[in-house]
Automatic annotation (TrEMBL):
Compartments where located: Mitochondrion inner membrane
InterPro entries: NADH_UbQ_OxRdtase_su10 (IPR019377), NDUFB10 (IPR039993)
A Gene Ontology cellular-component term: respiratory chain complex I
The protein, known as: NADH dehydrogenase [ubiquinone] 1 beta subcomplex subunit 10
PANTHER family: NADH DEHYDROGENASE [UBIQUINONE] 1 BETA SUBCOMPLEX SUBUNIT 10 (PTHR13094:SF1), NADH-UBIQUINONE OXIDOREDUCTASE PDSW SUBUNIT (PTHR13094)
Coiled-coil blocks: none
Length: 160
């Protein structure tokens, strides 16, 4: 088709009716989106996207699947962020070891301690949950840990 040519005329009445019905429904929605919603949105790059905090799984009712889904999504985002923080701390320690090789045991010790503390905190929250972890399993793990610590004292002291 050459620029400026019109598409061939369609004599099908059903298709014409369907297109008119679609335009009747779509036109106000498209106008509202283009004229009202998009001009009032803040433009963020994808890497600065900010999600609002949602209720945690202990604040959801047992028969509220939407709240459950949001809590699981929040849990997965938090787990990804915490894992990346742990990865960054590990890379900092490894870079320090490579750079400070003969004296790395003394120079990099603060980085190692910070990494080990973060690793322990990550394992306390997410460890032993498996690949299909969700917010409810993590909440139950936290609950069981609190009960165990009430009976036997802090778990960190037991494992060292």
């Amino acid at each position: 088709m050459v620029q400026g040519d019109q598409p061939p005329h369609d004599d099908n009445l059903f298709r014409a009716f369907a297109n008119a019905l679609y335009a009747t429904v779509d036109a106000p929605v498209t106008w509202f989106r283009e004229k009202v919603v998009e001009p009032n949105q803040k433009k963020y790059p994808w890497y600065h996207r900010q999600f609002r905090r949602v209720p945690t799984i202990d604040q959801c009712y047992s028969d509220d699947p939407v709240c459950d889904f949001e809590a699981n999504s929040q849990f997965k985002r938090d787990r990804a962020v915490d894992s990346e923080i742990l990865n960054i701390l590990r890379m900092r320690y490894e870079d320090c070891m490579m750079y400070e090789t003969p004296d790395h045991l003394t120079v990099c010790k603060p980085l190692w301690e910070k990494y080990k503390d973060a690793e322990e905190a990550w394992f306390i929250k997410y460890g032993d949950l498996g690949a299909y972890a969700d917010a409810r399993k993590a909440y139950m793990k936290q609950k069981h840990r609190i009960i165990w610590e009430k009976r036997h004292g802090p778990l960190s002291d037991q494992t060292k």
